[in-house]
Amino acid sequence: MVTIDPKSIPTAQLQGYLQSSVGPRPIAFASTIDSNGVPNLSPFSFFNVFSANPPILVFSPARRVRDNTTKHTLQNAEATREVVINVVNYDMVQQTSLSSTEYPEGVNEFLKSGFTPIPSTIVKPYRVKESPVQFECKVTQIIALGTEGGAGNLILCEVVKLHIDESILDSNGAIDQHKIDLVSRLGGNWYSRSNEGLFEVEKPLNTLGIGVDAIPGFIRESAYFDGNDLGKLGNIEKIPTEEEITIFVKENFDVKAVLSADDMDKKFQKAKEYLVNGKAVDAWKLLLAKK
Asked: Domain Flavin reductase like: where (predicted)?
């Protein structure tokens, strides 16, 4: 057995061991606003429920390991003392991952991730319409656990209103665990789906993903592509150039055949196949290719 003194290894390595060992961890998809009312949206896997009376949720935005800076969610919670915690199910996992991209202050992650903001009834931060359960919360306490990179900040939240999508309820009005289809975080790129088991989600780029808002309407509005597909398409650094598209078409006979058929359904079906196989850039090239 390997024995490790936590102080003897780099924080990033220690964090990897912790996140790969303690799991699966539920995901708090936290919606906040800054003092000027600008929305922010970000997921956190250091999260759980700790009390029912009063109803208390706790999540922890850690200081960034690389430069010891704090996240916008923490800054907003400190300034406004309000947050909405949305739960994450499988249908929204790719968009949720995209929202964790480190966009500059003031960028609206609702737009970038393609989620729908809806007004809360008590607090000011917006709820995520696509989330099956949404908790409006008042921040009761923030506990800093350290001052160095990697240190957590426990945000204690009292639930003042909760919203549950009726489609996930059983005949007795309880939440059906199959219908809610929750996902949770493990180490690296790994997630766990409550209904099926392990799966991977490619981490957002170190460079900024273009976002769902940059996807042309004919793709965004197509019935072929769900939220997870849009999340994958939004997590690329740049849209392929005409030259890159031309080369791609010339080198792929099956793509030529799809384009020659002049059938948009076949084109979308093939692009969907690329997305399922983790080839988002190829999907983009096909979608933007002309006959």
From this structure: 22-174
Entry pTM: 0.91
Please name the residues in contact with 287: beta carbons below 8 A apart, sequence gap of 6 or more. Answer: 219, 267, 268, 271
- Residue numbers of the domain that contains 188: 11-193
Task: Residue 155: name the closest of 11, 272, 275, 47 by CA.
Answer: 47
- How many domains does the chain divide into? 2
Q: Is 4 within the bounds of a domain?
A: no
- Tens of pLDDT, residue by residue over 221-266, are 999 999 999 999 999 999 999 999 999 999 988 888 888 888 899 9
Residue of 140, 173, 162 lying closest to 58 (CA atoms): 140
Does 184 lie in the same domain as 108? yes
Length of the chain: 291
CA atoms of 91 and 213, how far apart (whole Å) = 18
Residue with structure tokens 């303690």? 22
* 8 A C-beta contact, residue 29 and residue 85: yes
- 250 found inside a domain: yes
What are the beta bridge partners of residue 29? 43, 86
Average pLDDT, consecutive stretches of 10 residues, N- to C-terminus, the chain (291 residues): 92 92 95 94 97 97 90 95 98 96 88 97 98 98 94 97 97 96 95 91 81 96 95 95 93 88 90 95 95 71
- CATH number reported for the structural domain that contains residue 24 in this entry: 2.30.110.10
Q: Are residues 155 and 233 in the same domain?
A: no
Dist CA 81 CA 138 (whole Å): 6
Q: Which two tokens stand for residue 127?
A: 């709820």
Q: Are residues 113 and 44 in the same domain?
A: yes
**Of the candidates 5, 27, 28, which has an alpha carbon nearest to the alpha carbon of residue 17?**
5
Q: Exposure of 40 by Cβ count < 10 A (0-12 exposed, 13-18 middle, 19+ buried)?
A: buried
Are 130 and 25 in the same domain? yes
